[in-house]
Amino acid sequence: MWETTMSQSVIPGPAKPAPRAPRTTAGLGLAALTALVVGSMIGSGIFALPSQMAGSAAPGPLIIGWAVTGVGMLMLAFVFQTLATRKPDVDGGVYGYARAGFGNYIGFTSAFGYWMSAWVGNVAYLVLLFSTLGYFFPAFEGGATVAAIIGASVVLWIVHALTLRGVQTAALVNVVVTVAKVVPILVFIAIAAVGFKAGLFTADFWGKTTQIDGAPLGDTMSQVKSMMLVTVWVFIGIEGASVYSQRAARRADVGRATVLGFVGVLALLLLVNLLSYGLMAQAELAGVPDPSMAGVLENEVGSWGAAFISIGLVVSLLGALIAWVLLCVEILRLPALENVMPKALAKENRHGAPATALWLTNLCVQAMLLWTLANASTYTNLIYLATSLILLPYLWSAAYQVLLAVRGETYGDGRGRTRDILVGAIALGYAVWLVYAGGWQYVLMAAVFYLVGTALYVWARRESKLTVFTRAELVVVAVVAATSVLAVALLATGHLAVL
User: Where are the transmembrane segments (predicted)?
Assistant: First the structure.
């Protein structure tokens, strides 16, 4: 294993990739990888999209915002596709690219932030799952009752047992569930297309007169910015295939799955969102409670519509939970193989499942579920926290593509270099904007989590008898520590609260 040496530079140097661990099972094919992308992206966001967007923007600004978001996320999808092809020796997606480009500690923060985001997001999924079941069983209403937390815990450990049977088994189940959860979305789109009223859609196209809860929507740019904040959560998961790059049957399928999954999900999001504006007046649409897709369909076809969408959301959340449990354990396993996380997290059982990583992840989820019961944390707060923790890993991946293209590394004949610089720069700019849009309070909390998690990095480096930090990495740690101190001070004085 290559050991990072002391550096005089300000920017941590790249880390060489470790030899790939031999596969003990057959690799994941294109269908399974695409299902991981779709399954991790389609969770709950699309089912809440109609009212969330209606409360932010009229159709005109909405279309502009989707165009900007679509381009930004497409560039990010191209980044993952390009890196999977140009750096086939780098595994682990957002972790591997951050480590290869910017050193071991930055790679660790990317993996740890991604892992934290993934399991906090799973808590949010479980809370919403039982809140949705409250439509049928009042004891679960709100998702944070004692009955709901007990039910969520049971579901969590069933998924845990399934994943212990092996990644291949869980991935196969994820393919089936992903197909099942897309069906109700397609039914909604079909019904909405038939009932679409152009007059409603164009009634106040730029939002100049519409008011939401007595407040105007604002100018066009304000509406665009407002609606784009909502899109951050619905696109998380685009990197799903790249995280599983080491388990892919064919390396080229990683990039294909990323782009296929993104294009498919974007089409569904656009159709659900835009068609909803032709079914109800915008102010009325904004007031539909979540999952608003259920309320919109109920308004169109009657009560069976709400029940149908609610069942679809339950299936969707179960599928997203499986996909994200898979991503949680994989993002711990790979760093553990490369001395960036403790070696125990790479230990696999006889089915090829990273058992220790899985137990650690789901014990954290269980603890947060109990915290949710005691503190009544809302679904929205949880997804904002999960979103903030995943944004820096996206940023490092985009920065790595720019770094490769600027240096000319892997561009022996120069072909595609200018294009990749442009694509990487757009993706990097978009990632920076997402960090800003996530909100300063969540960035501060993310620093606290990174600092606490650094203990795992120190443990891993010492057990492998490797240099813990380079001088440049000590500067990064100092910045994280200073930001954490500020966050704790603000928490203590009541000026910061995220849960």
Answer: 26-49, 61-84, 96-116, 146-164, 171-196, 226-245, 257-281, 301-332, 353-371, 383-406, 418-436, 442-460, 472-498
